[in-house]
Amino acid sequence: MSAFRHRSGRRKQWRRASLRGTALAAVALLTACTGTAATGSATAGPGAKAGPGPAGADVAHHGRRAKAAAPVDRSPRDVGKQARAMLPAPTGPYAVGTTSLQLTDHSRQDPWQPESGARELMVSFWYPAVRGASHAARVSYMEPLAGAHFGSKRGAASFNYKLPAGRTDWSATGTQARQNAPVVRGGGRLPVVLYSPGVGDPRTWNTGLVEDLASRGYVVVTVDHTYEASEVQFPGNRLAESVLPGLMKPGVDIGAVQRKTMTARVADTRFVLDALPGLRHRAGLPTGLAGMMDLGRIGMVGHSAGGFTAAQTMHDDPRIKAGANLDGTMDFGGPDGRGHRLSSVARDGVDRPFLLMGTAAADSGDYHHQPSWDAFWTNSRGWHADVTLKNSEHGSYTDAAALLPQLARQGAAPEAAVRADIGTVRPQRAVAATRAYVASFFDRWLRGHDDHLLDGPSPRFPEMTYAQ
After folding, report:
1. Cα angle: 364, vertex 369, 436; to 5 degrees
2. For 9, which DSSP code?
3. Triad 353, 357, 358: Cα angle to 5°
4. CA distance 446 to 92
5. What digits encode the pLDDT tens for the residues 311-347?
6. What is the DSSP string of 182-209?
7. Which helix H or strand E contains 308, and what residues bound it?
8. pTM of the prediction?
9. Structural fold of domain 5-466
10. Domain boundaries, given as residue ranges, for the chain
11. Which helix (H) or strand (E) holds 97?
């Protein structure tokens, strides 16, 4: 059985916070969380087109009921001088389409803002589209308000990735997908993969990987965890900013916040799973999208706390048939954030296929040296593998690998930040390896197509090592 080496996302983020000592940096401490999940129903916000969802539910296509956006820091000298970048082309045979939805879970109040009422989420679908059939422009990496906030002093680009505020136009940064492009027809139903980002990161912060999976014939659903993500833009130009910086005050029980975060994340994910069957009956989605999803073949992948979310959701919910964790530890700290309190998924393991993908940062190690991964490895009964990307850092498995070098060439990303976020691995090789290993894993376990990349060390990717 092969294995990989893991860089602890939480420990890296803890190191950042201890060095910077700011409330914003403390958000990054929360790259690990746990809990149980809840299920519920979905509804439309004002001004949205509502359609039937799961039992007792509605789903809103671009609706919103959040607070108005706060002003975003931007100096006049930055306007018109911002850098922009482009995600690399996907490798599969299909073009990529995308569409977004608002979902509302009436079964629970928002855990971070109870006064706002029911829990509201934004999700995006990425799917195989007919090549050349759509004249729609490629969608931007982020919507304008979200992009401006993401790149501001309060946004994740600054406190998670140490990028200078206001230097990048994230809404002008390009993707490879087209809005509401016609779906590919005639190929039968396709497997579904959910994606969960790290704490503080928006659902867009691995669009390159998501687009690549869609181009290979998957429907990918990306989930924003509202009020935990740096920002979530809902239709109507409403912005929900993270509440986590305000929680990180002297005396706060950091371990309890981490657990609450994971509880909310798993509940969000299970609610999205509940909502998927009802999408077959609603208008407004690209024709055929809901019907092309094979809900008997669902996988999940996430980065950092999102990888923990994938594992914990898989532990709690049998609908997830295969999962992958991109560099996310699976334990909690104590009240002061120190120590390793194992999560239930680390203690119990899982009985279905799971892939661990780690990095080579100084504060990491393979499953032999990382307590939560070691416990998970020992206790898992299903197939599992563990691989490490050499010379990498925590951000190497995200869009940081593709975008930060482009921004650095335009003077919008310090070289030190690029090295801290993605290491010295060649960025193109990091992108290629991440795409290949994640796709190989899901092809093997959701499609029954095995390219044997995960059988052991491969000459195709000498950057990847295996722990045994």
Report:
1. 60
2. H
3. 150
4. 17
5. 999 999 999 999 999 999 999 999 999 988 999 999 9
6. PBP-SS--EEEEEEEPPTT--TTTTHHH
7. helix 305-316
8. 0.86
9. Rossmann fold (3.40.50)
10. 5-466
11. strand 95-109
